[in-house]
Fold:
Amino acid sequence: MFSTGVFLLAVLISTAEAGPWANICAGKSSNEIRTCDNHGCGQYTAQRNHRLHQGVDVLCSDGSTVYAPFTGTIMGQEKPYKNKNAINNGVRISGRGFCIKMFYIKPIKYKGSIKKGEKLGTLLSLQKVYPGIQSHIHIENCDLSDPTVYL
Structure:
């Protein structure tokens, strides 16, 4: 009984420590998912031409500060596009049982540790590439599962 109780307590502490992710964008009181516009919809598995959206788009104004959603390690640069454009930048972050890619940001660094809620970078101008789009950060789990529950 004692070992089961200790194990259960450890699981509860671990889950609470991971917890929901921090607010990702400065000036926003929550991680609001982009609705539909002329360029598509922001929810997980939204239809995108001939494929499904593999992440979630969190609303954020161009030029806003972007924060780390959880404590972890920035593993390196990630680029969402094969071509060069004004928003082709991002990072991969791993830690607390999570691994995500965050696109459309100019990060302050491409490697190293980062704490939940710490400044990660600045949102690039999506309007330069997609005029009229609801500006956002794209968040994608490395295993392509739905990240919505953590937002």
User: Anything to note?
Assistant: The longest strand covers residues 72-77. The first helix runs from residue 2 to 18.
